[in-house]
Specification:
single chain; 97 residues; mainly alpha
């Protein structure tokens, strides 16, 4: 089990190192990048009819892009939570009502 976890961590670290070259926003303010990530995640959230599918498919992408671009971890962790709650209010098919 530990070997699998270590292999996953090394794979994720290698992926983050490769994407950090691709996502160079050239000195933009991290809060502006966080605002862009929030707006994009809200737009993408509307098209997912399943909450768990959104969390499993998009949240890791949001975290990777945010961490690679230098956004602080705590505000970045709140973006998917906000997007998830707002998505439940925005679309009728994910609110459970």
């Amino acid at each position: 089990m530990t070997n699998k976890v270590n292999r996953f961590i090394s794979h994720y670290t290698n992926y983050q190192a490769r994407t950090s070259v691709s996502f160079n926003f050239g000195g933009l303010d991290p809060m502006l990048i966080l605002a862009m990530i929030t707006i994009i995640s809200l737009g993408v959230r509307y098209f997912f009819s399943s909450g768990p599918a959104y969390v499993a498919g998009i949240v890791p992408v949001i975290f990777t892009i945010g961490l690679v671009t230098g956004v602080a971890a705590m505000p970045l962790a709140l973006v998917p939570a906000f997007s998830r709650v707002y998505g439940c209010l925005l679309s009728h098919y994910d609110s459970g009502a």
